[in-house]
Amino acid sequence: MAVQRRGNVKNSDSKAIEKKIKRANAQRQTFTWRGFIIVLLLLTGSSAVVIWLYMSLSDDVTETLVSRREVLTEPRLFLVQCSEDYENYKQFPGCTPKKCGRAVIDSVVTKEEAQALRRLAERGLSLGGSDGGASILDLHSGALSMGKKFVNIYRYFSDQIREVFTEEDFTLYRDVRGRIQRVIAETFGLDSSQMYLTKPTFFSHINSTSAKTTHDEYWHPHIDKVTYGSFDYTSLLYLTDYGVDFGGGRFIFMDPNSNRTVEPRAGRVSFFSSGSENLHRVEKVVWGTRYAITVSFTCDPDHAIADPTLP
Ligand SMILES: *[C@@H]1O[C@H](CO)[C@@H](O)[C@H](O)[C@H]1NC(C)=O
Ligand SMILES: *[C@@H]1O[C@H](CO)[C@@H](O)[C@H](O)[C@H]1NC(C)=O
């Protein structure tokens, strides 16, 4: 009896246990599903957060100030508050920035003039060229990128120089820089005769070849007044078209809340006060060749340089 009872008990016990196991299995299954859904939701949620963080941290708020297709016959001016950079330098009335900002105009230099200047740059740069993607030619000092260094084009190619450049080239260059100077003066309300050309003023040729020395690293954000000291107004004359002759290579003003781009266009002049209010960089060129001329001005006659002349 005792055995039987025990057997019965055992029987009913094992049935209960079986039921429990089944229930537990079923529960485990629903738990697995629930867990799976929770994990999925967590993953989706966290990846959304990661994407959002990535977008808000790395993907810029980019605004196009002037696109390549637009043609500005009058300067388009964007005023910004002047930085304190100028206070550390001697003040020159009629020139030291009181009004700061950036402007773009397409009617100072014609397409034909831009083409002529581009050919001048091509001829000069064909004598040298950086191993990396960024080469310069400075008609004032004669500096020309060559390999990982620079040579003086006037000394290095003294015999051939008149086969490369003509008097007309230099006349055009001087004429264009004079017009740029006047439009900067008019736009910022300055006395053009109180502004002086300063160095470096140079042609640049940028393609997608990777940098070989720091001279090739044109894309770092910088402030011209901090980098060069003498600069008060920086201007850029573009000689090729963004999206047509090259990709990437847009000019970017890095403002606290937005990156504002200027798309190069042959004959386009972009100019700005050189202080921290105009922190900027150039986007990496990804294909083709970008040609431009940097023309810099100072208010300090001690930093003035003369127009280049053909030796
Ligand atoms: C501007 O671009 C830089 C570099 O690409 C980036 O680090 C910065 O967050 C951008 N600024 C804004 C406001 O989007
Ligand atoms: C970029 O320019 C350099 C210097 O002129 C040249 O040696 C190189 O072949 C060019 N790279 C491309 C991709 O065109």
From TrEMBL:
<keyword id="KW-0472">Membrane</keyword>
<keyword id="KW-1133">Transmembrane helix</keyword>
<dbReference type="GO" id="GO:0016705">
    <property type="term" value="F:oxidoreductase activity, acting on paired donors, with incorporation or reduction of molecular oxygen"/>
</dbReference>
<keyword id="KW-0560">Oxidoreductase</keyword>
<dbReference type="GO" id="GO:0016020">
    <property type="term" value="C:membrane"/>
</dbReference>
<keyword id="KW-0223">Dioxygenase</keyword>
<dbReference type="InterPro" id="IPR044862">
    <property type="entry name" value="Pro_4_hyd_alph_FE2OG_OXY"/>
</dbReference>
<dbReference type="GO" id="GO:0051213">
    <property type="term" value="F:dioxygenase activity"/>
</dbReference>
<dbReference type="GO" id="GO:0031418">
    <property type="term" value="F:L-ascorbic acid binding"/>
</dbReference>
<dbReference type="GO" id="GO:0005506">
    <property type="term" value="F:iron ion binding"/>
</dbReference>
<protein>
    <recommendedName>
        <fullName>Fe2OG dioxygenase domain-containing protein</fullName>
    </recommendedName>
</protein>
<feature type="domain" description="Fe2OG dioxygenase">
    <location>
        <begin position="199"/>
        <end position="300"/>
    </location>
</feature>
<dbReference type="Pfam" id="PF13640">
    <property type="entry name" value="2OG-FeII_Oxy_3"/>
</dbReference>
<dbReference type="InterPro" id="IPR039210">
    <property type="entry name" value="OGFOD3"/>
</dbReference>
<dbReference type="InterPro" id="IPR006620">
    <property type="entry name" value="Pro_4_hyd_alph"/>
</dbReference>
<keyword id="KW-0812">Transmembrane</keyword>
<keyword id="KW-0479">Metal-binding</keyword>
<keyword id="KW-0408">Iron</keyword>
<feature type="transmembrane region" description="Helical">
    <location>
        <begin position="31"/>
        <end position="55"/>
    </location>
</feature>
<dbReference type="InterPro" id="IPR005123">
    <property type="entry name" value="Oxoglu/Fe-dep_dioxygenase_dom"/>
</dbReference>
